[in-house]
Amino acid sequence: MTGAETQGIKTVLHPVSDLAKAKAVYAALLGVPPQTDEPYYVGFEAAGQHIGLVPGGGQQGMTSPVTYWHVPDIEAKLAEVTAAGGTVKEPAHDVGGGRLVAAFTDPDGNVLGLLQDR
User: Fold this and answer.
1) What is the pTM of this model?
2) 3-class SS at 23?
Protein backbone atom coordinates (compact mmCIF):
# COMPACT_ATOMS: atom_id res chain seq x y z
CA MET A 1 0.00 0.00 0.00
CA THR A 2 1.27 3.42 -0.87
CA GLY A 3 -1.54 5.55 0.57
CA ALA A 4 -1.67 7.38 3.86
CA GLU A 5 -2.58 5.45 6.97
CA THR A 6 -5.87 6.22 8.66
CA GLN A 7 -6.00 7.94 12.01
CA GLY A 8 -8.42 5.31 13.32
CA ILE A 9 -12.14 5.14 13.98
CA LYS A 10 -13.04 8.15 16.08
CA THR A 11 -16.63 8.74 14.97
CA VAL A 12 -19.65 6.43 14.91
CA LEU A 13 -23.07 7.63 13.76
CA HIS A 14 -26.24 5.76 14.74
CA PRO A 15 -29.59 6.15 12.96
CA VAL A 16 -32.40 6.51 15.52
CA SER A 17 -36.18 6.56 15.24
CA ASP A 18 -36.86 8.57 18.42
CA LEU A 19 -34.17 11.18 19.06
CA ALA A 20 -35.33 12.11 22.59
CA LYS A 21 -35.41 8.50 23.80
CA ALA A 22 -32.08 7.66 22.16
CA LYS A 23 -30.47 10.80 23.60
CA ALA A 24 -31.44 9.71 27.13
CA VAL A 25 -30.04 6.20 26.63
CA TYR A 26 -26.74 7.39 25.13
CA ALA A 27 -26.32 10.07 27.82
CA ALA A 28 -26.76 7.36 30.47
CA LEU A 29 -24.36 5.01 28.66
CA LEU A 30 -21.64 7.60 28.07
CA GLY A 31 -22.10 9.49 31.35
CA VAL A 32 -21.99 12.90 29.66
CA PRO A 33 -24.58 15.28 28.20
CA PRO A 34 -24.60 15.88 24.45
CA GLN A 35 -22.13 18.41 23.09
CA THR A 36 -24.39 19.07 20.09
CA ASP A 37 -28.16 18.93 20.59
CA GLU A 38 -30.17 19.84 17.50
CA PRO A 39 -33.42 18.40 16.05
CA TYR A 40 -31.42 16.96 13.13
CA TYR A 41 -28.40 15.65 15.08
CA VAL A 42 -27.24 14.92 18.63
CA GLY A 43 -23.52 14.42 19.22
CA PHE A 44 -21.57 13.24 22.26
CA GLU A 45 -17.84 13.43 22.99
CA ALA A 46 -16.67 10.68 25.33
CA ALA A 47 -13.31 8.99 25.85
CA GLY A 48 -11.86 10.45 22.65
CA GLN A 49 -14.79 9.25 20.55
CA HIS A 50 -17.60 11.14 18.84
CA ILE A 51 -20.95 9.35 18.99
CA GLY A 52 -23.69 10.86 16.83
CA LEU A 53 -27.42 10.21 16.69
CA VAL A 54 -29.08 10.82 13.31
CA PRO A 55 -32.90 10.87 13.30
CA GLY A 56 -34.31 8.58 10.63
CA GLY A 57 -30.85 8.03 9.19
CA GLY A 58 -30.81 11.60 7.84
CA GLN A 59 -30.16 12.46 4.21
CA GLN A 60 -27.68 9.60 4.05
CA GLY A 61 -30.50 7.07 4.47
CA MET A 62 -28.51 5.20 7.11
CA THR A 63 -30.04 1.87 8.14
CA SER A 64 -27.31 0.81 10.57
CA PRO A 65 -24.45 2.48 12.47
CA VAL A 66 -21.63 3.81 10.29
CA THR A 67 -18.04 4.03 11.52
CA TYR A 68 -15.97 6.91 10.22
CA TRP A 69 -12.25 6.41 9.68
CA HIS A 70 -10.40 9.69 10.13
CA VAL A 71 -7.95 10.35 7.29
CA PRO A 72 -5.55 13.16 6.37
CA ASP A 73 -6.66 13.26 2.68
CA ILE A 74 -10.22 12.11 2.02
CA GLU A 75 -10.07 12.31 -1.79
CA ALA A 76 -6.85 10.27 -1.94
CA LYS A 77 -8.19 7.63 0.46
CA LEU A 78 -11.52 7.41 -1.40
CA ALA A 79 -9.62 6.89 -4.67
CA GLU A 80 -7.46 4.25 -3.00
CA VAL A 81 -10.37 2.22 -1.61
CA THR A 82 -12.36 2.41 -4.85
CA ALA A 83 -9.31 1.27 -6.84
CA ALA A 84 -9.13 -1.69 -4.45
CA GLY A 85 -12.80 -2.63 -5.09
CA GLY A 86 -14.88 -0.34 -2.88
CA THR A 87 -17.88 1.53 -4.32
CA VAL A 88 -18.62 5.18 -3.56
CA LYS A 89 -21.94 5.55 -1.75
CA GLU A 90 -21.59 9.23 -0.78
CA PRO A 91 -18.90 11.40 -2.43
CA ALA A 92 -16.75 13.64 -0.26
CA HIS A 93 -18.61 16.78 0.80
CA ASP A 94 -18.34 19.51 3.42
CA VAL A 95 -20.70 19.13 6.38
CA GLY A 96 -19.64 22.41 8.00
CA GLY A 97 -16.83 23.62 10.15
CA GLY A 98 -14.21 22.46 7.66
CA ARG A 99 -15.20 18.80 8.05
CA LEU A 100 -15.42 16.60 4.97
CA VAL A 101 -17.17 13.23 4.95
CA ALA A 102 -17.63 10.46 2.40
CA ALA A 103 -18.96 6.92 2.46
CA PHE A 104 -18.25 3.80 0.45
CA THR A 105 -19.24 0.15 0.50
CA ASP A 106 -16.91 -2.79 0.66
CA PRO A 107 -17.45 -5.74 -1.72
CA ASP A 108 -20.05 -7.20 0.70
CA GLY A 109 -22.10 -4.01 0.89
CA ASN A 110 -20.92 -2.88 4.33
CA VAL A 111 -20.98 0.92 4.58
CA LEU A 112 -17.78 2.59 5.79
CA GLY A 113 -17.24 6.30 6.29
CA LEU A 114 -14.24 8.57 5.82
CA LEU A 115 -13.80 11.85 7.66
CA GLN A 116 -11.26 14.63 7.19
CA ASP A 117 -10.98 17.73 9.35
CA ARG A 118 -9.29 20.64 7.59
Assistant:
1) 0.83
2) helix
CB 22 within 8 A of CB 16: yes
Q: What is the CA radius of gyration of the chain?
A: 15
DSSP E strands: which ranges in the chain? 9-16, 36-38, 41-46, 49-55, 66-70, 87-96, 99-105, 111-117
Residues 88-108 have pLDDT tens digits of 999 999 998 899 999 999 998
Residue 104 amino acid letter: F
Region 38-64: what's the mean pLDDT?
90
Point out which residues pair with 99 in neighbouring strands.
Answer: 96, 117
CB count in 10 Å sphere of residue 44: 21
CA dist., res. 35 & res. 117, Å (int)? 18
